[in-house]
Automatic annotation (TrEMBL):
It is found in: Cell membrane. It catalyses: a quinone + NADH + 5 H(+)(in) = a quinol + NAD(+) + 4 H(+)(out). In the C-terminal section; belongs to the complex I 49 kDa subunit family. PANTHER family: NADH DEHYDROGENASE [UBIQUINONE] IRON-SULFUR PROTEIN 2, MITOCHONDRIAL, NADH-UBIQUINONE OXIDOREDUCTASE 49 KDA SUBUNIT. It comes from the Archaea. GO terms for cellular component: plasma membrane. Keywords: Cell membrane, Membrane, Multifunctional enzyme, NAD, Transport, Ubiquinone. Residues 313-563 form the NADH-quinone oxidoreductase subunit D domain. This is NADH-ubiquinone oxidoreductase chain 49kDa. One of its GO terms (molecular function) is oxidoreductase activity, acting on NAD(P)H. The lineage of its organism: Archaea, Methanobacteriati, Methanobacteriota, Stenosarchaea group, Halobacteria. NDH-1 is composed of 13 different subunits. Subunits NuoB, CD, E, F, and G constitute the peripheral sector of the complex. Its main location: membrane. Residues 52-169 form the NADH:ubiquinone oxidoreductase 30kDa subunit domain. It comes from Natrinema limicola JCM 13563.
Amino acid sequence: MSETTEPEPEHERIDPEYDHRREEGVDEAALEALLSEYAIGRDDHENAPAFVIRPDEVQEVVRLLRDEAGFDHLTCLTSQQYEDRYESLIHMTKYDQRTHEVTLVVPLPTDDPVCESAEPVFRTADWHEREAFDLVGIEYDGHPDLRRILLPESWQGHPLALDYDQNKPQVVRYAEHANPLQDDRHLHESDTMLLNIGPHHPATHGVLHLETVLDGESVANVVPDIGYLHRCEEQMCQQGTYRHQIIPYSNRWDYTANLPNEWAVARAIEDLADIEVPAYAQVLRTMATEFGRMLGHFLAVSTFALDVYGDFTAIFQYGMRDREVVQDILEDLTGQRMMFYYFRLGGVCWDLPEPREEFVEKCRDFLDELPAKVDEYHDLLTGNEIFQIRTLDTGVLEPEVAKDYGCTGPVARGSGIDYDLRRDDPYGYYDNLEWNVVTEDSCDNHARVLVRLREVEESAKIIEQCLDLLEDWPEDERTVQSNVPRTLKPDAGTETYRAVESAKGELGIYIRTDGSNSPARFKIRSPCFHNLAALPEMAEGEYVADLVASLGSLDIVLGSVDR
């Protein structure tokens, strides 16, 4: 990446590897040739070539794309219903070339919506397909455990189906918890016990229920039970208007670091409506979002200290101290302390607060003190012997397993996966700034903490450069928002998937339009949803205490998991 000295929206990129990872688009002709046997049609999507395939050939096509074309990242799997059909949609890309994207469209009849499961090829399809079954009503043939995931088992109907009765009363019963390890599943001399962890327990980071089977003190099996915080966010976004009513909802997903959420929604809608964002507004977005990333990482590190050795007085309060400073800065910028709503379509709501010099000085004072504070975290946390014993070589998530579950963000980068959308699918002003993607190779709980602490330092680099740009930007060119129509009605049938790098990983939005001023389908691809699904791979065979540490290292937020 090249360093910029002038506030211009375009800069020459001089790093050839950087260009290779981001700029080369997928070879559509090669894809057509590869899928010629299977594709029965084409579809128009804004972000990627889309191929229509038969429902009984999903596994074969997905495996072909993974093994022959290198599409090793099943980014998003969603579903929807039309008047004359259902559709299951699979969006795939590559960890080493994010701008290579492809979408598979699987049409299904309304009277028998059955699709072959992609789970045998990508484990991440497990939870995706359960959600599609739960909310839309599509069944997935060959799925290992096709049952509801967000709603109770006794729920009647599928809330995102066209014929769902919103006024129908529901009777929700409590299900009995059976030990999933039957006699023929373990040694007879073993003595297992079912232990419910959560949903009301501080170590579960919210309303998460872990159905845990113990063999002595070791975790023999763990099943995350989610859905306790499901608030129908996707449906509410489908009822809101593009112009003003959707972005505010996004602050409620990952509410610990929510500015990237606003950008994810804005990026998808701006893509649909072909809205340009002024360069000056891009700098403001980039700076604000990196402050938001710090909010998330400070909280993640401080609560993790509570999880692994109960240190409330030192590290937790240090984390809250630094987080408060960032919140003060963002309150000055946005007017809010938590639900910021700073982004607008085409830019941001306003410029830096007046007097500008005072705000910039406040930001620089924080950045100047940050290196010493990060050193304190290393002294108190990563250099602490108890912390090292609890985190080194525990919660190991190997790179190939992480990819199989679609893990992203610090969870993936802690497993050595060099993947960051800010660089690999550039947006905002990131590609004009000097910063580094942070990775660690030890794949354990310790590595994920190191990644977050180092990313705080990288965020500081980005913010420093943004402040330089904002100070030097000519006053008469400080455009904070482009001219956006009061009412947006993108052409019917337009579809797109766009994503940003949130503090937790890849936060993506899929939107389909119907010609009105609200989406026909709005799908949230949550990084916490994917990362949490990998917890059994990290925890089984280890002690209960290691399970708690592994969960904490994922830095999940249930508002993002359940949506």
